[in-house]
Specification:
107 residues; mainly alpha
Length: 107
């Protein structure tokens, strides 16, 4: 009698490792930079371009952060104003109710 063996198949799980991809990109960038001599104009242009890109990213982040903070301040001011008007209206309404209660009944 024949015993069935385990069935095998060629499944390879797909796994995306973002850290590994970034590391590969950094290694490729470093190897590309090493192709140029340190004093060459191409090397300086690459470094300048990377610094500009980095500066622009930092500037964009600062601009977004500043606009988010301004938006938050405007929303807080609006909420405080609405709260003030609501409490002011409730105070006027309660004053009217109190004055109505204090009036002499009509006979």
């Amino acid at each position: 009698m024949k015993v069935n063996s385990h069935k095998r198949y060629g499944y390879q799980p797909r796994y995306y490792d973002e850290r590994k991809e970034r590391l590969k990109a950094m290694i490729a960038q470093h190897e590309e930079d090493n192709k140029f001599e340190k004093d060459s104009a191409e090397y300086r242009a690459k470094i300048k371009q990377r610094m500009e890109v980095s500066w622009n990213l930092n500037t964009a982040h600062a601009t977004q952060s500043r606009s988010a903070n301004i938006r938050l301040i405007v929303i807080l001011i609006a909420l405080v104003a609405v709260t003030y008007f609501i409490f002011d209206y409730v105070d006027m309404f309660s004053a009217d109710i109190t004055s109505i209660d204090n009036q002499e009944p009509i006979r």
